[in-house]
Design goal:
heterodimer, A: 270 residues, mainly beta, 8-stranded antiparallel beta barrel, 3-stranded antiparallel β-sheet, elongated, B: 162 residues, 6-stranded antiparallel β-sheet, 4-stranded mixed β-sheet, 1 helix, 10 strands
Chain lengths: 270, 162
């Protein structure tokens, strides 16, 4: 009998404990924000699909601004070596791009960091190029020559479309497709560069490029406010406003703040 | 999760679709376009052109036996020297001419490679030739593009028997 009493006591205690646990308010969920820094992996992955050697690195960084805007800087270096049957073209240099991305995807929850974006960039590159092992067959005897090194620069603009998805907490992967418009490049009457570090091919009316990268977001700031989704067309939609409100573990959020279980607004992380 | 799937799918599709196509659609032959004419409008019955110092068998540049008032030819210039000489046999009569030129190579395109560009600066010729007129001193890979109409130099022969 004492055993039965003990079991009954334990059973009741467990039920009470479980009830207390369930009754406790859930820990408030935070939205983390901060600069996101990453590297472009396509420089490494795509080299296997191209006959020419294209090596280098690129760092990309962005920071959230006013919710859906992401000012962005990108910089890197590139070494290009194209060995062909009748010549070898090489260039190397560095480049930088600055611009902004605009997220067009609605954030579904505080933990949602996925982005679908369009953006624009201004790009600048300084590089040198040269050619060697030039062979030109000729009736009078084949010609062997080279083109000496020359310093060049180029300016261009990019229109960007891409995505970034949060794979794990603060870790993102993403890709972007870029249409590039060359504004100007140094004049070289002998050899016009057919590839520019940071811009890519200069042939074709509007060259396209693709990049794929991994990123880490430094969670310097936490907030419980969701950025307002981008309003397309001006007039607000009541249904959409309703969609923006959602329940989360007993509390309710809206775009203005958190109604229960803690402070609202944003706070710097310690 | 939806985005992660899209990201992965798009990445794979784009990677698979990355196929480079390489083709050269431009000429890399820089031929000097020459019109041969009789100084008094005589017809040229036969014309043979050889490069001077290139007399080995098979080195004849042109052997044209179709009678015509104007013979239109493309001739290569030397890339190793700043002067190029030709021996011409027009209606069986021999003449020689030399052209002085400068040369630099230029990149035509990634797929085509390099081609020379010459600038004709002067020349000299033997007695059978009446005159040489340089109409376009620049000889490059585009000179022969419109082969029927393009012209760098005009050569008049004394073909009439004295």
């Amino acid at each position: 009998m004492p055993q039965a009493r003990t079991f009954l006591f334990i059973f009741i205690s467990l039920i009470i404990s479980a009830g207390q646990l369930l009754a406790q308010p859930a820990k408030p969920e935070w939205r983390y924000e901060g600069p996101r820094v990453g590297i472009d992996l396509s420089r490494f992955l795509m080299s296997g699909f191209q006959h020419a050697s294209r090596t280098g690195w690129e760092v990309q960084a962005d920071i959230p601004w006013k919710g859906n805007f992401f000012p962005t800087v990108e910089f890197g270096t590139q070494q290009f070596d194209d060995k062909k049957d009748n010549f070898r073209y090489q260039n190397n240099g560095f480049y930088g791009r600055a611009g902004i991305d605009l997220n067009i995807l609605k954030f579904e929850s505080l933990s949602d960091g996925d982005l679908l974006f369009v953006g624009a960039r201004y790009g600048y590159s300084r590089f040198k190029h040269w050619a060697s092992d030039v062979v030109i067959p000729n009736y009078w005897g084949d010609y062997y020559g080279s083109i000496p090194e020359r310093n060049m620069n180029a300016h261009w603009a990019e229109i960007v479309f891409g995505m970034k998805g949060e794979l794990a907490h603060n870790f993102f992967i993403g890709w972007s497709l870029r249409a590039k418009i060359l504004f100007s490049k140094s004049k070289d009457p002998v050899m016009s560069p057919y590839i520019i570090p940071g811009m890519g091919k200069t042939t074709g009316d509007i060259p396209f490029d693709f990049s794929f990268g991994v990123y880490y977001r430094f969670p310097l700031r936490k907030t419980q406010t969701l950025p307002k989704p981008l309003q397309m067309g001006g007039k607000s939609n009541d249904d959409e406003e309703e969609d923006d409100q959602f329940n989360n573990s007993g509390g309710s959020y809206n775009q203005g703040g958190f109604n229960r279980g803690g402070s609202s607004g944003s706070a710097l992380l310690n | 999760m939806r985005l992660k799937c899209i990201i992965f799918t798009a990445f794979v599709l784009l990677l698979v679709s990355c196929k480079e196509e390489k083709r050269c659609y431009e000429s890399t032959d820089s031929l000097m376009m020459v019109n041969f004419l009789g100084s008094n409008g005589e017809e040229i019955d036969s014309l043979m052109v050889k490069g001077i110092d290139r007399n080995a068998v098979g080195d004849t540049l042109v052997h044209d036996t179709i009678a015509a008032e104007v013979k239109h030819l493309g001739l290569p210039l030397s890339m190793s020297y700043d002067s190029t000489g030709f021996q011409v046999f027009a209606n069986g009569k021999a003449a020689i001419f030399y052209l002085n030129h400068s040369m630099q190579i230029k990149l035509v395109s990634e797929d085509c490679g390099f081609a020379p560009e010459f600038q004709i600066t002067g020349g000299r010729f033997s007695a059978l030739i009446d005159s040489i007129i340089v109409t376009d001193p620049v000889v490059n890979n585009k000179s022969s593009e419109t082969h029927a109409t393009s012209q760098n130099i005009l050569i008049y022969f004394h073909l009439a028997d004295n």
